[in-house]
Specification:
- The protein is mainly alpha-helical.
- The chain has one domain: Up-down Bundle (Four Helix Bundle (Hemerythrin (Met), subunit A)).
- It contains five helices and no strands.
- Helix 1 packs antiparallel against helix 2, helix 2 runs parallel beside helix 5 and helix 3 runs antiparallel to helix 5.
- The longest helix has 37 residues.
- The two termini are 23 Å apart.
Length: 153
């Protein structure tokens, strides 16, 4: 249980922490200073390095979370409401990420390769909205994980 929980938390830190950093610091401080071609190339490169880590994080979160629920807590029915909320919100986050990766990010890469800066900007704007939503959901999940067991059932 200890190893599973440690891996689970580390994977959440990588994913949510990476989104928080990108959304709150990289975007408004550094990326906003760049002209559109440089900004879009920067984001395509950042996502290209970050997204493989997100896939690994998702695999770890799912594997360890399901193992803890099924082997330690006795299944979803026996788990507290906060466990079910974490799982449900985590699934929503994963679906949002998969959409970002397979739709606007793929189109962003194509736009950057073709130097189509207006199309790339449109895709980046979509990604920004979804990353913002996922960052808020991730912080909510962390709050639920931290204090959920103390809530009345």
């Amino acid at each position: 249980m200890g190893v599973a929980l440690l891996l689970h938390v580390l994977a959440v830190v990588v994913w949510v922490g990476g989104m928080f950093f990108a959304y709150m610091f990289l975007r408004p401080v550094a990326a906003s200073q760049l002209e559109p071609p440089a900004r879009l190339k920067l984001w395509a490169g950042v996502f290209g390095r970050f997204f493989p880590w997100v896939f690994v994080s998702i695999a770890i979160i799912l594997a360890t979370g399901l193992w803890m629920v099924l082997a330690v807590f006795g299944g979803f029915a026996a788990s507290g409401l906060y466990i079910n909320l974490m799982f449900g919100l985590g699934l929503v986050m994963m679906l949002i990420f998969l959409h970002v990766f397979f739709a606007p990010y793929r189109r962003l890469r194509t736009a950057v390769e073709q130097a189509d800066w207006p199309a790339g900007g449109k895709q980046l704007a979509q990604i920004r909205i979804m990353v913002g939503i996922n960052t808020l959901l991730g912080l909510l999940v962390i709050a639920i994980a931290s204090g959920g067991r103390f809530l009345p059932t």
